[in-house]
Amino acid sequence: MPTDYQKSHTHSTSNKVEIGKSQTCACFCCLKTYPSEKVSEWADDDSAICPHCGVDSVIGDASGLELSPEFLEGMNLYWFRSTRMPPSRITFTGLDTVGDLTTTVEAIKPWLRPRDVPKSDWTLPEIEFGVLYMAEKMGKPRYPDEDTLTAIAREAVHLCVPIALHLCGEASKPNAWFDMTTHSPSKKSCWSRIQVTYIEGLSAEEVVALARWGQSGGVDVILQRSLAPLEAIPWFPGLTVLADNSRGKGATPENWPAPSNLYALEDMIVYAGGLGPDNIVTEWGRISQARGHLGVYGIDMESGIRTDNRMDPSKVRAVLEQLYGLADDPTWARVASNASFAARQSRT
Questions:
Q1: Residue 340 is assigned to a structural domain of this protein
Q2: Last residue of a domain, one of 54, 80, 106
Q3: What is the pTM of this model?
Q4: pLDDT tens digits for the chain (348 residues)?
Q5: Which of 46, 56, 106, 293 suits a disulfide with 16, CB 3.0-4.6 Å?
Q6: Phi, psi (5° rounding) for residue 344?
């Protein structure tokens, strides 16, 4: 079960009584651990001030939390690493049925943009669902048959949620893209985006043809690459690149790829590979470190949000809770904490 960093944070606020009952305290800003009697300063709301760094990010062991190095590192990563920016788009891939879509949408309603709120006024991410298309595997887990694909696309329109079609296998080859234009249910008009698995060595002409093919149908195109450097992928306006070193096998990379300035500044890069509720906070930090301050980005996950080989709404919800806050107050957790951190530092 992943640590609830939002709930744990409540033990660092107005905690004078709890600190008084504690023997040991720890600070998730400077990561130091010390006897509770070392705490001698308190903020206006009776929150303990760390004697080492001067920030009110102190938790006592009377909270019942295990003040381990791993816990403190996770809290620090979640609340204080100011270079982190939450992804502006999250894609949850691997729908098998219409029911998977409807139950998951119901589970994550607090994070979905209301229909009457302009996108520019909504600070939470664009949440998208993905469905896999591979003619060779239709009807098997993760690869719905044609009737189900059509039903999923129609239900997504009814629920007002974006949905992307991921072309895999033979359907991802250059000579198959244009055949997909009129093929139902995979015709472009059914989907908000189309993702094409990248074949290493795709020519610049083929990349341009792919991007224009998408534009002609009014959909965005995302090009999935695996091992090729981002700089090696021909650039075209409006083309998104998905970086997945595991080639769709659901494994996190040793190092997330740093974006080239061209793609990072002009268009969105999407990161994928083994992401899920158990590691999203840690990997979010690693992705941010790889990116630096460059541009907006998205993440895509599939294997990490499945249980018994089906999309698990509770895991999808857990990802959003850890990235954007709890259901009763979804927010950009990093932006809020950055402002809080700056205010705290100004008092020292």
A1: no
A2: 80
A3: 0.69
A4: 456 787 899 999 999 999 999 999 999 888 889 999 999 999 989 999 999 888 889 999 999 999 998 888 888 877 765 445 678 889 999 999 999 999 999 999 988 877 666 665 566 788 999 999 888 888 899 999 988 998 999 999 899 899 988 888 777 666 665 555 444 444 556 788 888 776 556 677 777 777 777 777 666 777 776 555 566 666 666 677 787 776 667 788 788 877 664 444 445 788 888 999 988 877 887 787 777 656 668 899 999 999 999 999 999 999 988 887 665 554 443 333 333 333 333 333
A5: 46
A6: -65, -45
Last residue of one domain, picked from the residues 47, 80, 113: 80
Q: Tokens standing for 342?
A: 């700056």
Q: Given the structure tokens 């059509």, which residue do they identify? A: 150
Residue 215 lies in a domain: yes
Do residues 93 and 300 touch, judged by C-beta distance below 8 A?
yes
Looking at residue 221, its amino acid is V
Overall domain count for the chain: 2
